[in-house]
Write a structure and sequence with these properties.
single chain; alpha+beta; two-stranded antiparallel ribbon; 7 strands
Length: about 350
């Protein structure tokens, strides 16, 4: 309404000034002309909200010739209301004094010629504005619903991953603890139980966060790896090579756990000799590259990561798609010197804010 009133006032000022300048030698009173124009344009101010609502209804209706004919009839009816009002204002105000004085009939003829086509145009413009605004709002609402659905899907997948981690890892760790107890290494067994407790508490605390800083993800992975190393004694070594500028970059929660688990479970644990795990992270070309590599037995012949991916890789790829679309990727390949390498590529943020990351 305020926008319509402002537009009407501006139109009245501009048209009045144009008329006054074109007849500057006639001695007309600008304020009379302005009042006359303000009545004419002001008529459309209260009409605007109604026209927008009608246009919005049209956007949700099935358009047909009968519908257009109905709107044309209404537009003609509105014009037949507006034109006599404009003529009455012209008759009362007599804006062309002292040169000319008009009767109501003469004012009506003049207003019909001046306003009829303008009224039809303004009526159509109001409908078009309502139609367009309704379409825009519908599109925005649809985008919001899709975004909310994607977020909920990502949260559901995160919860699935969390539940997947706990039983599998829990049983393996408890078996390792039992083995230490049987060998009377109670201090080491207690250390593992405390580490397991901290890890599970961290898992629960982070379960509602979609993205976290890479530093937090690495902290979680370091605890996870320490518990895994208890199963391998001195057969597993881990190397971290993470550029400092990467630590605050946001990454999906539990991004590295399935990659590290695959490297240990399917690579290093399948060989008798000691194995090593490398975790690298770097920023390059506006992207964050994270690599998890092992020197295990490598991928089987003919392995296709897209066709033969397990639950962990499938879940990770799906979450990357939901969070980043085509801007993120996950590839799994053989290493030239033996073993397997998983590479995650994410869009980097120029100035990651930890508070915003933590809230997802």
């Amino acid at each position: 309404m305020l926008a319509a009133a402002t537009a009407a006032l501006l139109a009245a000022v501009l048209v009045s000034s144009q008329i006054q300048l074109s007849m500057i030698d006639h001695g007309h009173d600008w304020w009379r002309i302005f009042a006359w124009q303000l009545v004419g344009w002001g008529f459309w101010v209260p009409m605007t909200p109604w026209l927008i609502s009608v246009g919005a209804r049209l956007s949700r209706s099935r358009l047909s010739p009968a519908l257009w004919l109905r709107e044309l009839a209404i537009a003609l009816g509105v014009a037949l209301i507006h034109i006599p009002l404009a003529a009455l204002a012209f008759t009362v105000l007599q804006p062309y004094l002292p040169v000319d004085r008009y009767s109501f009939l003469a004012s009506l003829v003049r207003s019909l010629a001046s306003w009829f086509h303008v009224d039809l145009l303004l009526y159509g413009s109001g409908l078009a504005l309502g139609y367009g605004l309704s379409g825009y709002r519908s599109a925005r609402a649809s985008e919001l619903r899709e975004s909310q659905l994607e977020t909920e899907l990502a949260r559901a997948q995160l919860e699935t991953l969390r539940l997947q981690i706990q039983p599998h890892f829990l049983f393996n760790t408890l078996n390792s603890v039992a083995s230490l107890v049987r060998r009377k290494r109670n201090d080491r067994a207690l250390e593992m139980l405390l580490g397991l407790s901290e890890l599970l508490r961290s898992t629960l605390d982070r379960s509602q966060q979609l993205r976290i800083p890479l530093a937090e993800e690495l902290d979680f992975i370091s605890r996870y790896v320490e518990l895994q190393r208890a199963r391998f004694a001195d057969r597993l070594t881990v190397h971290y090579d993470v550029a400092e500028e990467c630590l605050e970059q946001p990454v999906p929660n539990f991004l590295l756990q399935p990659l590290v688990e695959n490297a240990i479970r399917h690579g290093i644990s399948q060989r008798a000799a000691p194995g090593s795990l490398q975790i690298h992270a770097r920023l390059e070309g506006g992207r964050l590259y994270i690599e998890v590599a092992d020197d295990g037995i490598g991928l089987p012949a003919g392995f296709d990561a897209a066709e033969q991916q397990g639950v962990g890789l499938s879940n990770t790829r799906s979450r990357l798609q939901q969070l980043y679309g085509e801007r993120a990727s996950l590839t799994v390949d053989k290493r030239t010197n033996g073993g397997t390498q998983a590479v995650v590529v994410l869009p980097a943020e120029l100035a990651p804010a930890l508070q915003r990351i933590a809230t997802g």
